[in-house]
Amino acid sequence: MSEAELHLLKARLRGGQLSKARRGKLVQPLPIGLVYDGAGKVVLDPDTAIQRAIRTVFTLFDTTGSATGVVKAFNHDRLTLPRRIQSGPDKGKVVWGPIAHSRVLQILHNPRYAGAFVYGRHQHKPTASGKSAPALQPREQWIALFPDAHVGYISFDKYEANEARLTSNAVAHGKDRRHGPAREGPALLQGMTLCGICGRRMTVRYHQRKGGLEPEYVCQAKGIEYGNPICQRVHGAVVDNAVGRLLIEALTPHAITAALAVADELAARADETERLRAAGVERAQYQVDLARRRYLAVDPDNRLVAGSLEADWNTALRELTQVRETYESARNDGGGVLDDAQRARITALAGDFPALWKDPDTPMRERKRLVRLLVVDVTLVRADEIAVHVRLTGGQEHTLTLPVPLASWQIRQTPPEVVAAIDELLDDHTDGQVAAILTERGHVSGTGHALRPTIVRHIRNRYGLRSHPQRLADQGMLSLREIARRLGIGLNTVQVWRNNGLLTALVANDKGEYFYFPPPPDLERPRIGRPPGPRPAPAGTPTELAQGGAV
Fold it and tell me: Coil, strand or helix: which one is 286?
């Protein structure tokens, strides 16, 4: 047969395949959870355990909002996921194993689970290694798409909503930096804030403070792309608290209904998890019974076959023991099943939604998920005040005006009343005396420490207050050198005259230095260097000679 004939036959076969696909009649391999019945119609897998596992994937995706959350929930509840072997001697056999992130994405992205017939989602293209590999095509390039072609696990509208959520999660790593799935960080509005100046999406920074991490919303898109300064930065805790209070006020009329719905959802999820575990035990028990019947039905004389069947029976028994141990362990740990105390606690919190929001046991991820259900976006503008424009899902809009938080240096700034008291006391007291008086009154510094002379001096210099010596000089008082120069005497003589009451002085600082009142014009000047009064006799001189003079 020539190459031309082979090419013609291949083209005819391909044409027939495409014709059937365009009519939605092409028979294709179905994903796990869907099978063909005797009439060639697509139906759900008759194995209820497989159905429950697939439904649980979609339920957990609605609950967690991400494929990674589904994987974590499966592992936390110790659940397994079915998989059908596609090739080899065990082709078509269903095996159960640990869940993987790629398997979850395959299930969520597959439109067959939404009851749609689709053809042309992937196209084989050559790679750099020379081999061909399937590449996902845009929806407009699919050859055929028939929604509601057969029964499915979800509706096609739900499938499109899941696709939009997965796309939003992926865009969190892209240029626009959308919010993506809720995470554990303390930023309540992660990825939901818009810059009111340039309109771009703002990112989140975290700063380590004494109390933990504090968020900050920053618009730095132009700074990253063009090297420009950032548009604005807004303290996140202030905005988050204001939005949280707004949601509490908005949801108060529906608090009880919402909380009871959450309680019912948790209970239904726990019951579904319990049924999945029980189905796993039942499936393992069936394999044991099947292996036992096969072993008992074999001819006893055929020892080769009997030995192999006996080994299969023992393997099935070990798997049953392992599944039962896992089942009992999960039940003992709670395994997501709500007991009476937990149900009572949820019911009690149902009547007080603010307490549920403020409860420290409520994870930050759950608060973020609530915000994403209620808030579309938040626009921030920082000027003299912070303007917060909140758009709710129902179409309502709220504008909040918040004060700009104080900077760290402003928080540590000395209170104005302390500065005023220092300015008043410096008229008559030194730095040390001022510190003692204010401490006795109960005043402290901006950092919360007791006032000391060095702190008073620092505050005085910081606010430009005149010192006590400067105030005395402004009153006309003279320093030690100035009064000594005016009187024409030595420094020590000035101190002697002060000690003997000839000069009046006031303490000027904590070093013991004095400022002197100007001397009066009629000051009686004793002999230079000596105070007035009789001159003492030299040591050792007889008193008679000193008083009577020379003989």
Answer: helix
Q: Tokens 């740990």 belong to which residue?
A: 333
In sequence order, the 6+-apart residues with CB closer than 8 A to the CB of 272 are: 52, 55, 56, 59
Residue with structure tokens 């930065």? 233
CA angle 490, 493, 499 (to 5 degrees): 150
Burial class (CB in 10 A: 0-12, 13-18, 19+), 153: buried
User: 111: which DSSP letter?
Assistant: G
No. of helices (H) and no. of strands (E), the chain: 20, 17
Q: Judge contact between 453 and 432, C-beta under 8 A.
A: yes
Q: CA torsion sign, 126 to 128 to 130 to 133? A: negative
For the domain 19-171, what is the CATH code? Answer: 3.90.1750.20
The identity of residue 385, as a single letter, is E
User: Is pLDDT above 80 for 514?
Assistant: yes
How far is the C-alpha of 211 from the C-alpha of 505, rounded, in Å? 53
**Higher pLDDT, residue 11 or 266:** 11
- pLDDT one-digit tens code per residue, 152-193: 999 999 999 999 888 877 755 555 555 566 677 788 888 888
- Per-residue b or e along 208-221, where b marks 16 or more CB atoms closer than 10 Å to that residue's CB: eeeeeebbbbbbbb
| 3 state SS of 137 | coil
Q: Backbone phi, then psi, for 452, in 5-degree steps?
A: -120, 165
Query: What pLDDT digit, counting tens, does each position of 232-252 carry?
Result: 889 888 898 898 888 877 765
β-strand 193-195 against 375-382: which pairing, if any? parallel
**What pLDDT sits at residue 111?**
93
| Percent of the chain residues past pLDDT 70, beyond the cut | 82
- Among candidate residues 257, 259, 313, the one with its CA nearest the CA of residue 288: 313
Burial of 297 (0-12, 13-18, 19+ CB in 10 A): exposed
Give how far Cα 281 sits from Cα of 285, 316, 328, 375, Å. Answer: 6, 12, 10, 43
Alpha-carbon gap, residue 324 to 331, rounded angstroms? 11
Helical spans, DSSP H, in 426-542: 431-441, 453-462, 468-474, 480-487, 491-499
pLDDT-wise least confident of 219-223, 285-289, 512-516: 219-223
Asked whether the beta carbons of 71 and 101 are under 8 A apart, the reply is yes
- Mean pLDDT, the chain, whole residue set: 80
Q: What is the mean pLDDT of residues 142-148?
A: 90
- Please give the residue that has the higher pLDDT: either 107 or 533: 107
Name the residue type at position 525.
R
* Rounded CA separation 334/135 (Å): 44
In angstroms, the CA 85 to CA 32 distance is 10
Tokens of 275: 């049924």
- pLDDT of 134 reads 83
pLDDT greater than 90 at residue 361: no
Global confidence as pTM: 0.51
Q: Output the six-digit token pair for 437.
A: 């008086």
Strand (E) positions, 138-259? 144-146, 193-195, 203-209, 212-218, 233-235
> Which parts of 310-384 are beta strand (E)?
375-382
* Residue 300: strand pairing partners: none
